[in-house]
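Kindly inspect this today.
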Amino acid sequence: MSHVIQRSTYALADLHKHHYTRSEAMRPFRTSGYALIFLYEGSAKLSIHHRRHALRPGSCCLLAPGTWVKCEAGRSGAALYLLTYDSLNAAADAGLAGSELPPHDEAVHMLTHTPAMITLLTQIEQLAHQTDDASYFRRQALFYELLHLISLVQSSEDKPAHDAIQMTVHYMDSHYMNDLQVGKLPEMANLTPSAYCRAFKKSVGVSPGTYLTQLRIRKAKELLRVTGRSTLKDIAQSVGFNDELYFSRVFKKSEGVSPTVYASSRSTRVAVVSHLFLQDHLLSLGIQPVAAPAFPSVYAGSSGFPRYLQQQLQGTRPLNAESQIVLGEVQELEPDMIIKMAFQGNPSDSSWQRAENAICLEGFPEWYNYVEALGSLLSKESQAEAVIRRVEQIESVYRSKLQPVTAAVGELLIVRALPGDFRIYGAHSHALSGLIYRVFGFEADPRASHAFYKRDTWETLLQWDPASILFVWSDPQELARLRQLPSWRELRAVREGRVYCPDTREWDPWGPSGREYTIYDGARYFQQAVPQRLVL
C-alpha cells in the first residue's frame, strides 16, 4: 500500500457519512489529499479516471491525491463513509509531484474492510463536533488505529496464508494488553474462522486463544519479577486480564504456582558466574539474579544479554564473561548464593570454593539437567518440572510441524566456520545437535557419529561432500571467504541448493527461553528456506 499509506505523519482532515437513493450520483470530485471510501450498505459503481469499479458491502477504496472520482448508487441505494486525510511529510507525496494525475494503477486500491474498521469510523464520526483538545487527540488516535487495520488487511490480502497468520501473531504481540478479541483475527487475515484456526495452529503450533494466553502469562512473569508493582490487579490489567482471580487461576495452571508465590521468590539474591546463561534457567523459576554473565562482543546493546532476556534482566548487573570475573566484584552485591561454573579464564579455584555463599556447579549433558539442579538448590522442584514439561510440549509440536521439511532435506551436517577454527558437530552430546536432530527430526550425516564437536578442516568437508549443510554461529567474513573458493561450488550441497545459513547469533538451546527462541526462529527459517516443491 506504498502509494496510499506510507511511513509518514498524517492528519485526519474530514469524515462524512453519505446516503444515496437508487441510481443517485455523487457529485464528481478530485481528491486534494488522500481519501478512503467505505461502502457499508447497498452497492455502487465507482469511476476512477474513467475506469469503473463495482462496490459491494464491505468494499474499501483507497485513493491517492489528484484522483478524479465519480460514484453512482446501485438499485438498492448506497451508504458510505468518505474520509479524507493529509500527509504532513512532503517526502511522502514526492512521488506524485510534477504529475497532473497519478498513474492509473496507483490511483486506487481496493480491499475488503472489516467490522472493526466501521466501528472505528463510527467512533471518529461521534467526535466530529467536539472541539476540546482531548477529543481532537482521541480522533487522531482512532484514525491511526484505522490506518493500522487497513495496513494489516492489505498485507493479509497481498501475502500467502502463512504471512497473514504471522501478521495476526504480530498484532497479538503488540495488543495483548488490550481487550483483544480473538474472534476478530480471522477478519484481519482475510480467512474464515475455521480456516484461520486451522492455518494458525499449523503455523504456530497452538490455537490463537492458547497463544494469546501464553503470551499474556509470559508478559505477566516479566512484570512479577520487577519491583514497584503495587497490586496483583495492576499486573493482571497490564497484560489484558480484567479479573485478577481469573488471572491467578490461569497463571497457576500454566506455571504450577500462584502469581504471589512466583513474585515472592525474588527474596533470594542469586548471582551467576558461568559461560552458560543460567540466568535463563533462574528466570524460568521466578528468580531474577542480581548479577549474570554477559557477552558484549556477541550481543547488541549495552547489557551483553540476548534480546529475548534483556527486558527480564533489567536491574541485573552484567558480568563480562569474556574476561576474568573477580569474586570481590560479585560479593559487593551481597548475594545469598553464587552459582559458579568453571570456564575459560574463570576456573573454580580455591577462592571461589572457600566462599561460603558460592556453589560450584559442574556441567550437565542436557539443558533440563540445569533446570532440575537449580530447582533442587532453590527448593523449586515443582516449578522446574513445569518448565521442563512446557518446553518438551513445544518440542513435540514443532517436531511434528517440521516433519515434511526434515524429510525433504535428508541427511544434514552441522558446521561452524570461524577464522582458523573449523568445527563439525557430532550427532549427540551437544545441546544444539540434540535440538536439530532429536527435536527438529533432521537426519544426521552418518559420518558425524562423534560426540559434541571436533575441530577439523575445510578439506574434510570437501571429502565428505554432504548432501545438506547447516552453518551455525559462524563468522560472516569467514563464510564469505569460503564462498569465494573454487572448491565451494564443487560441493553437492551448494550445487543442489541445500546449504542453510540462518542468523544464529541468538540461538541458545541450553536454557528454557533460549531454547524456545531457537525452536521458533529455527522452525521459521527452515519452513521458508526449504523450497515448497521439495516439501510437497
